[in-house]
From TrEMBL:
<dbReference type="Pfam" id="PF00107">
    <property type="entry name" value="ADH_zinc_N"/>
</dbReference>
<dbReference type="InterPro" id="IPR013149">
    <property type="entry name" value="ADH-like_C"/>
</dbReference>
<dbReference type="Pfam" id="PF08240">
    <property type="entry name" value="ADH_N"/>
</dbReference>
<dbReference type="InterPro" id="IPR020843">
    <property type="entry name" value="ER"/>
</dbReference>
<feature type="compositionally biased region" description="Polar residues">
    <location>
        <begin position="8"/>
        <end position="19"/>
    </location>
</feature>
<dbReference type="InterPro" id="IPR013154">
    <property type="entry name" value="ADH-like_N"/>
</dbReference>
<feature type="region of interest" description="Disordered">
    <location>
        <begin position="1"/>
        <end position="22"/>
    </location>
</feature>
<dbReference type="GO" id="GO:0016491">
    <property type="term" value="F:oxidoreductase activity"/>
</dbReference>
<dbReference type="InterPro" id="IPR011032">
    <property type="entry name" value="GroES-like_sf"/>
</dbReference>
<dbReference type="InterPro" id="IPR036291">
    <property type="entry name" value="NAD(P)-bd_dom_sf"/>
</dbReference>
<protein>
    <submittedName>
        <fullName>NAD(P)-dependent alcohol dehydrogenase</fullName>
    </submittedName>
</protein>
<dbReference type="InterPro" id="IPR052711">
    <property type="entry name" value="Zinc_ADH-like"/>
</dbReference>
<feature type="domain" description="Enoyl reductase (ER)">
    <location>
        <begin position="10"/>
        <end position="335"/>
    </location>
</feature>
Length: 337
């Protein structure tokens, strides 16, 4: 079968085409034929060698996607051949609280991912999709979407009237915009692009801030919220933006740290503000299968669609990665089989 592998991991163009034997489903396993794969920021970080330790150069990447079950192993009852399914990228985290053991099976990192004509996955981790969720919406849910859902419904319990601040217009931020609006919250979003901010407003953002025009974007947020600040902040910018996020937080605000974006300011800035504002800062890692089911059910009953920037053919996967790495787009980048 056709596949792609990550190669030597020194730039965003190390992805290379390869062929692999077709997988065989063992007990408790299923084979999926992907329809669409969605790129996320860590896919680029893997290629450039900046996401944790270097991986096996033969690793097949791809964190999130949607596909059809084409074979099942002995004892599988969770899915059947022909089911259209998704899978969270921590395949062992089915339910319950976070544990570091979830990192033992991370799709596209410790195990081969979606960027192949067939992918072998644990059947217990798979989720059947309702018919009214499109392939495009399904393909983008497992990483950015589930992370945003976990951040806003699991950790912070977003509610109507809250002000949610999303940094930038990446996948997590746009997914969080959707989830927050589902719950009646007000959403603020930052970007250095007026074009991206205009799109964010069309998607429902209530406050948009250009951080080139307003380098002290925390002060601008306080101004636009009558000095209230953000009740919930999704901190996707890394260490270099944490100080601004603390300044932008409301009293009793909650900051959810997401991702491993690098930064140069390792010491925690504005330390006294933790006490003065009674802020909670919490790191999260994606989410469990149970959370994913709740997220899918919410999407199935809400008319909020994913924003798609561009779709590439499977053979154009290297071009898709390079397009994504330029970070000039807004919305998700897909690879179609």
């Amino acid at each position: 079968m056709k596949a792609f592998q990550i190669g030597k991991q020194h730039s965003n163009n190390t992805l290379s085409a390869t062929t692999r034997p077709e997988p065989v489903a063992g007990p408790g396993e299923a084979i999926i034929a992907p329809r669409l794969v969605s790129l996320i920021s860590r896919d680029i970080q893997v290629l450039t060698g900046t996401y944790g330790p270097l991986q096996d150069p033969k690793r097949v990447p791809g964190t999130e996607g949607v596909g059809d079950v084409i074979a099942i192993g002995e004892g599988v009852t969770e899915v059947s051949v022909g089911d259209r399914v998704v899978c969270g990228h921590f395949a062992n985290w089915l339910d319950g609280p976070f544990s570091t053991n979830i990192f033992n099976h991370d799709i596209g990192i410790t195990h081969d991912g979606w960027l192949a004509e067939q992918v072998l996955l644990p059947a217990a981790a798979l989720i059947r999709l309702p018919d009214n969720i499109s392939d495009e919406d399904a393909a983008v849910m497992a990483s950015a979407g589930l992370t945003a859902w976990h951040a806003l419904t699991g950790k912070t319990k977003v509610k109507a009237g809250d002000t949610v601040l999303c940094l930038g217009t990446g996948g997590v931020s746009l997914a969080a915009l959707n989830v927050a609006k589902m719950h009646g919250a007000r959403v603020a979003i930052t970007s250095s692009s007026d074009e991206k901010l205009a799109v964010a407003r069309k998607l429902g953002a209530d406050i948009t801030i250009d951080y080139k025009t307003h380098p002290d974007w925390a002060a601008e947020l306080m101004k636009q919220t009558n000095n209230h600040g953000a009740d919930i902040i999704l901190e996707t910018g890394g260490q270099d933006t944490l100080g601004h996020s603390i300044n932008a937080a409301a009293a009793n605000g909650q900051i959810v740290v997401i991702g491993v974006a690098p930064g140069s300011n390792s010491p925690i800035p504005n330390y006294t503000m933790f006490i003065l504002k009674n802020i909670v800062i919490k790191g999260i890692a994606n989410g469990s299968r149970a959370m994913f089911v709740d997220y899918i059910n919410a999407l199935a009953t809400n008319d909020r669609k994913a924003l798609i920037a561009k779709t590439f053919d499977f053979d154009q996967a290297p071009q898709a990665y390079q397009y994504f790495a330029q970070a000039k787009h807004i919305g998700k980048v897909l690879i179609k089989f």
